Amino acid sequence: MSNKYLVVLFFMFGLIQISACSTDENSQTKIIKPETQLSTNDTTQTVKLNAKHSIQQAIENNDYRLLHSKGRRIVVPGLEKIELSLLKSQCGLKALKNSSDVMKNDQQRQQRKTLYTYAKQFNQAMYAICLDNIDK
Fold first, then answer.
1. CA dist 58 to 1, 19, 34, 43, 44, Å?
2. Can you tell me the distance from the alpha carbon of 17 to that of 35, in angstroms, rounded to the nearest whole number?
3. Measured torsion, CA atoms of residues 31, 98, 89, 136, in degrees rounded to the nearest 10
4. How many Å apart are CA 65 and CA 68, to the nearest integer?
5. Which pTM value belongs to this model?
6. Annotated domain spans of the chain
7. Strand locations in 20-83 (E)
8. Whole-angstrom Cα Rg for the chain
């Protein structure tokens, strides 16, 4: 094999790898956002109310998908001990907006904690509802 052929081959392989990481707008994973933007001053009670409201909306839409964080590793808050593939096959997953694993300051760190609390409450309640609907 010539060196030019090998260079072209490696270049094509690299392009294939990069294109596999892109997102597709038609994919089943949707990005959702809590009803109200959570700030650093939100209390746990406000987070609970937001989660309950989101759960009711999801039930009305027959959408039992669980929230997951975006980043290098997918995390389903509140259900970390359950295998990701099982959660995906049982209920489905949807990305939580503003859930990157990159945090540059204390405000982003606090917002991440609040968002995690919201997603944890949502997921724990929604997982039970999802399992009930699988049995029916």
1. 57, 32, 12, 23, 21
2. 36
3. -70
4. 9
5. 0.64
6. 27-135
7. 31-32, 66-68
8. 19
